Amino acid sequence: MCSRKAMDKRTDRLKRVRVEGRGLLDSVFSWSIEDVLSKDLYKDQVEKIPDSFTSTAHYMKAFIVPLQEETHADLLSRAESLAGAPTYRILRVRKSKDHKPPKDLFYEISMEQTSGGNVPWVGDLIALTNMKLKGVDDLRETQQTYPVAFVHAVKGVYCFTASILSSKPIEDEEELNNGKHFAVHLTNLTTNLRIWRSLHLELEGRNLNVIKKVLQNNFNDGGNCTICSSSKNSDAASACSRDLLQSFNLNSSQEAAVLSCIDTARCCHQYTVKVVQGPPGTGKTKTLGCLLHSLLRIKCRTLTCAPTNIAVLEAAARVVRTVSDVVGYETYGMGDIIVFGNRERMKIDGSDHNDLLHVYLDNRVEELEKCIDPSIGWKHTLHSLISLLEESEAQNHLYLQDNIGDENLSTCERLVWKRFSFSRKDLESCIVTLYTHLPTALISLEVMKIMTRALDLMRSLENLMLSLSAAEEGLEQILEEKEDEERKLHYRIKLRNEKRECLDTLLLLSQKFQLPKFTDKNTIEKICLSNACLYFCTVSTSAKLHAIRMAPLHCLVIDEAAQLKECESTIPLQLSGLHHAILIGDEQQLPATVNSQILGEAEFGRSLVERLVKLGCKSHLLNIQYRMHPSISLFPNTEFYGRQVLDGPNVKETGYSRRFLQGDMFDSYSFINIADGKEEFAGQQSFKNSVEAAAVADIVRRLIEGSI
Fold it and tell me: Where is the DNA2/NAM7 helicase-like C-terminal domain (predicted)?
């Protein structure tokens, strides 16, 4: 039996703050300024990443040192552009409750913005200094006294508090509390820390079955499952797949790619990887939308990733636009789709993405939380309306059977009307929220139809009440204007019948639908994630899914896969339960950006798509392009695609050939060398080249003028 002292120690360990990817962070903390500024720090340690691997351990290890070098090169690049880096004034520093030397040097630091705009993000690396840094020399001077630190958590907006992990002890905390010290943004380590965890197999629920299929040239694209082929349902499934595609008007290569992916996704017996190559203008986005729509229809739990938020939102938007066509009921079915990620970085609240608010996880949780509110939530408003209608029905019965006075009935009706109108609005809000945000696994189409019927009846009943009620004067005045008692009785019977139908529908709804066991935001999020079908996020953000207990995902789709470093793709490829990976991209286009010159020949920027194609993996080529005039498409088609890509009929039309810029310089292709341009740090994680931007702006201006 454990002693109390031993149990206390164990509890203390469990309470310690966990910093993901600590191994990489410790490497960063170990670098001196001289190390950071040395372009050759890892030169003798970096080895070329091979084309094939003997084991998963060999595979993962091949990326570790290159990842350290790329992290170092990124920091060096930022250090050389410190003048424009976001800077924050330090107001107070104190040890946090998690401060446990010699390694866990956690501090709480209060700051306010002075330049650079944004509040620090979790994952930022900052330098604590006694001046606003203008260059590398300033950083070299301050590093003798003050450390760099990792932002672990942030609270607040303008004046905010951050939990930081410092690279070394802050000896004189009081000195930093004088308002004359600063925190300078250096870089953000979030993605690289997630990659580090992936390479070290530190992700929860890791699954290496798909990764094992890409180590050598014996990978499986899912075309030879004997069990699926011999199944009695095989032909029926293929026919069903073709039926799903009829409304999308795909060309033969697009249809072949989608059908192959759907047939593979139906298989539960193999682990496979497929590659779909989409040269520019061949309808890659349309094909992706069709594929995801089809996977949604067959209820295949699928994660769709891309390197950037822009690509993720574009893919999600295309699917969202088709969902209402699936069942034909407004926003029903949106609950099967989830987009998640950093709200600020995704800019999900902007006008360009209003249609995605229905599927954005944080917004979904906020909306569903209202449905468990004790005063305006689902249970309260539904029961209130049922009780109200039952009470009103009893009053009508007394009037019709026992002839109670009009004056008494009018008073009752006036009170019922006010209460009904108030409760109806709350219940209507709950109903729309529930059928919009709940996955279809939790709210059936039958229940949805009952809900919409209830909405129609409540609105009709309210309109009838309005027609029988003269604002503040109530029913009494209207009834006195009736010519005879029969007319009066007719209105009463009609009102009673509509109330009865509305009451019966609400009672049926209370029997057919039970609200999931939502207790707080965490349970709402968990239930939504566990029951959805399509998930959208960046490749980096998919690391969060490893920590969530949910039903396994069956299929992974990576869009823009050729623009993704292979080591980063290992994050979603390890998701629990994953059987199939579909990589959509074009290895002939530009690869991922790599900051390190050392890694240029080490293949660190190479994508998984490029390596698989090099090993002989057969890809589905989308072979008709609809964007470029034949005189433009000829060059890339000849140089990169072996003339396998055909020109669509639209680009061959006479009206497709237009010329806006005059001069020999502007032909089908113009290669312009901007010799005087220089890249400069533009804040957060971007760079700018003002000279190139000016040249582009001038060309665009001339294009606009020429097209008018």
Answer: 605-705
| pLDDT value, residue 16 | 54
How many other C-beta atoms can be found within 10 angstroms of the C-beta atom of residue 176? 23
Strands 534-538, 337-339: pairing is parallel
For residue 410, the surrounding DSSP H or E stretch is helix 406-437
Q: Dump pLDDT digits (tens) for 618-668.
A: 999 999 999 999 999 999 999 999 999 999 999 998 888 777 787 777 777
Closest CA to 167 of 29, 33, 296, 306: 29
For the record, the structure tokens of 519 come out as 């207790």
Is the backbone peptide bond immediately before 102 cis, with ω within 30 degrees of 0?
yes
Task: List CB contacts of 435: < 8 A, sequence separation 6 or more.
Answer: 329, 330, 331, 332, 335, 443, 448, 451, 452
CA–CA separation, 349 and 367 (whole Å): 15
Q: What is the DSSP string of 225-282?
A: -HHHHH-TTHHHHHHHHHHHHGGG---HHHHHHHHHHHHHHT-SS--EEEEEE--TTS
Residues whose CB falls within 8 Å of the CB of residue 101, separated by 6 or more in sequence, listed in order: 169
Q: What is the DSSP string of 562-575?
A: GGS-HHHHHHHHT-
Question: Positive or negative CA dihedral for 324, 327, 332, 337?
Answer: negative
Closest of 646, 660, 604, 476 to residue 70, by C-alpha? 604
Residue 56 burial (CB < 10 Å; 0-12/13-18/19+)?
middle
With beta carbons less than 8 A apart as the criterion, state whether 461 and 502 touch.
Answer: yes
- Within 8 A by CB and 6+ apart from 277, the residues are 585, 586, 587, 609, 613, 619, 620, 621, 622
pLDDT at 702: 86
* pLDDT tens track for 84-110: 788 899 999 999 999 999 899 999 999
Where does residue 39 fall: left (phi above 0), alpha (psi -120 to 50 degrees), or beta otherwise?
alpha
Q: Which of 365, 363, 385 is nearest to 376 (CA)?
A: 385
At 250, list the tokens.
């795909």
Strand partners, 155: 161
Strands 337-339 and 272-277: what pairing? unpaired
Here the tokens at position 195 are 């990659």
- Strands (E) in 622-690, as ranges, are 624-625, 646-647, 680-681, 687-688
187 pairs with which residues across the strands? 125
The string of DSSP letters for 170-232 reads -S-TGGGGGS--EEEEEEE-HHHHHHHHHHTT-STT---TTGGGGSSS----S---HHHHH-T
How many whole angstroms separate alpha carbon 304 and alpha carbon 324? Answer: 20
Q: What are phi and psi of 597, to 5 degrees?
A: -70, -30
Quote the pLDDT of residue 119.
Answer: 81
pLDDT score of 478 more than 60: no
- pLDDT at position 462 is 83
CA 31 – CA 20 distance, rounded (Å): 19
For residue 536, give the 3-state DSSP assignment.
strand
Identity (one letter) of the amino acid at 352? Answer: D
C-beta separation of 369 from 523 below 8 A:
no
Residue for token digits 């924050």? 88
Using the structure block, give the residue that is written with the tokens 């206390």. Answer: 8
Q: How far apart are CA 108 and CA 101, in angstroms?
A: 15
In single-letter form, the type of residue at position 596 comes to S
| Calculated CA dihedral for residues 511, 516, 520, 522, nearest 10 degrees | -170
**pTM for the predicted model, two decimal places:** 0.88
> DSSP alpha helices (H): ranges in 533-592?
566-573
3-state SS, residue 357: helix
